[in-house]
Amino acid sequence: MKKIPGHFLIIAGCVMVMVAGCVMPVTAAVCDGPPTSQSFILFSGGCDRSPQVLPCTQGFIIPALPSSGGDFPTQYYLDFGDGSSPYYGTVDGVTHTYTAPGQFTLKYMAGTQCDLWRQGTYVMNIPAPENYTTVNPGCAPSRPMAGFTGTPVSGFAPLTIRFTSTSSGADAYAWRFGDGGTSPALNPSHTYVTPGTYSVSLEARDSCTGTVNRADRLSYITVTATAGTLTISSTPSGATVFIDNFVRGITPVTLTDTATGSHTLLLTRAGYDDYSRTFIIEPSTPATIGATLTKSITEPTPRPSLSYGSIAITSLPPGATVNLDGVQRGAAPAVIPDVLPGNHEVSLSLQGYDDWNQAVSVGSGQTAAINAILITTAARTGSLAVTSDPAGAEIYIDDGFKGVSPATISGLSAGTHTVSVKLQGYAENTTSINVTAGQTGRFPAVLQKIHTLSVMDILLAAGVVLMIVAIAVVVMFRADTKKE
Fold first, then answer.
1. pLDDT tens digits, 223-234
2. What is the rounded CA–CA span in Å between residue 439 and residue 251?
């Protein structure tokens, strides 16, 4: 499979979009939709014409026009329909060699950098050459196993995540990122632009047999609204902090949920002049403001009195125990009243799920909302099914005894583990197994019998040795006698 030279593709692409003009792609992503249209061109080869010679190499061009908002296509996919590995790349042209005649349904796609795709199909008929002998190469049995990881799995929008397939036995892939984006790449990068929680799935397929296996991770990605960290202090401390006319605490205070952009800060303290200024929050750069207050020589301006706030907490699943600043405050869903303005630590715990922790800023007279999605501990661990021939062998994982085969050991951390299977009279079978979170791996251990000598075997061997020694002594004695 070869890529078509880039200069030809540029010319061909310009011809295809001549009506709209040959425009170079822009880098800004609008993410409004997939390419508006896509073409399919048979270029060189003539595999669909008769008479024909096989093998035959056919060229394809699959150019596409930008989305209505101006997102240019940046990635292309072509399934050749003959059971071979599909093409995926950044060039809209490729060649492929067919080895047999037949009718092939080709699936082609073009996608933007936002992973929004336009797709189509084309049926190509390759006639059999004269005197052609049919060859059925067949497909080897295949059992694809889908699996994947993502890094990072949480952060502020826009959040770009690098996904890595850990699948085996597959050569074609179909990702669904949970926000409408898809990808046929092996290891794609995907950018989430809208805050929320997203489930991700991967279908791993063996193109030859068509066998598919799917891996799903529910609520795998958490994207939070773009915010920055703001630390405010004053000399002297104890000033009331107003941001955009809302009370956010008493200095010194650190706020982690201040939206990006421009804001107005006001500090007030009895006996001191008001301190005010504007500032800008950037998501990747923590902001620090230190204010020196000046003693007042005029009557203070009346300000709203500082009042308590509250925190409304929900959890999925419900029923998680709620702790506020280390003190238990009931179970979610719950509303915690009479919370002093400022920063507080909220933690949730529920059996079978990872502990959940978050800092929250409570404003005067305001209710802060927390919607916690708990992650089951099973999402971080996997299982391993161990069998042995013969059965009844002891199973050790990372030198720890885990039971007798056959057995399925659950709660194993994702990653590589050393597995040993031991049975008296048989050689130990030890190997390294990679455990994938949320999946069950398999280790069928075949044990080799150790052949040991019985007591009778030892006595017979000893008798043979004694006989050989006796013969040697007799021979030496006769030799000495002849010398005399």
1. 876 777 899 999
2. 49
Q: Tell me which of 2.60.40.10, 2.30.110.10, 1.10.730.10, 3.20.20.70 is the CATH number of domain 6-126.
A: 2.60.40.10
Cα 358 from Cα 444, distance rounded (Å): 44
For the chain, what percentages of helix, strand and coil (3-state, to nearest 5) are there? 10, 50, 40
CB neighbourhood size of 470 (10 A): 10
148-224 topology per CATH: Immunoglobulin-like (2.60.40)
Read off the tokens for 330: 């009931």
Distance (Å, whole) CA 22 – CA 401:
67
For 380-446, CATH number? 2.60.40.1120
Question: Which amino acid, 137?
Answer: P
On the CB side of 428, CA atoms within 13 Å amount to 10
Six token digits for residue 142? 């295949």
The token pair at 359 is: 């800092």
Among 408, 383, 403, 384, which Cα is nearest to 392's? 403
Distances from the Cα of 271 to the Cαs of 236, 241, 300, 306, in angstroms? 11, 16, 7, 16
Q: Strand, helix or coil at 465?
A: helix
Q: Is the CB of residue 16 less than 8 Å from the CB of residue 36? A: no
How many alpha carbons fall within 13 Å on the CB side of residue 314?
3
pLDDT category at 18 given cuts 50, 70, 90 is: very low
Tell me the pLDDT of the chain averaged across its residues.
84
> String of b and e for 413-443 (b: at least 16 CB within 10 Å)?
ebeebebbbbbeebeebeeebebbbbbebeb
CATH number of this structure's domain 309-374: 2.60.40.1120
Q: How far apart are CA 379 and CA 212, in angstroms?
A: 22
Query: Residues 335-370: pLDDT tens digits?
Result: 888 888 878 889 999 988 888 888 887 877 777 778
What pLDDT does 305 receive?
Answer: 58
CA 314 to centroid of chain Cα atoms? 27
> What are the boundaries of each domain within the chain?
6-126, 148-224, 227-292, 309-374, 380-446, 455-484
Task: Report the 10 Å Cβ neighbour count for 254.
Answer: 16
pLDDT tens track for 75-113: 999 999 999 999 999 999 999 999 989 999 999 999 999
Tell me if 158 sits within 8 A of 192, measured CB to CB.
yes
Q: Are 239 and 218 in contact (CB under 8 A)?
A: no
Q: What's the rounded mean pLDDT across residues 191-196?
A: 86
The CATH fold of domain 227-292:
Immunoglobulin-like (2.60.40)
Between 154-158, 190-194, 238-242, 297-301, the lowest mean confidence (pLDDT) is in 297-301
